[in-house]
Predict the 3D structure of the following.
Amino acid sequence: MILDWYYETWVDGIIIMRSVPNNKMLWKFYTMLFMTLAIFANLLTIITILQRLSGHEFFTLHIHFFQNPKINSQIDFFLCFIAWHLIINYFLIFRKNRYEILIAKYKFSNGKLFLPYTVLSIIVPFIIIFLAAITP
């Protein structure tokens, strides 16, 4: 059921991105970008709430590739929060043009899934941060 909703949202986004004439060469990139950012924002919101409630830190790698700690923390952040979304989404959606099978299987919702999901996923974390800041 959840996986069906996930695939329907992807199909909705893919068809929308493919329909924009300016996206002819980059529709895969844009669809992957928006969906990955939305999933990342949802995960980050959930992890932030859990960390605040439990006092336990999640997803820390502490990789030391470089001497600069700022660069290392950016690499940690990318590997913990973004890279695995990209990899999973690639294998579930784009590998061997699987999106074609998904488009044939799931209906197009004319943006009713993709657009609200991406917009709300990016707006809700800011609302939560604002509410956390104004409440004692």
Notes: DSSP finds five helices and no strands in the chain. Residues 94 and 126 are 30 Å apart (CA to CA).
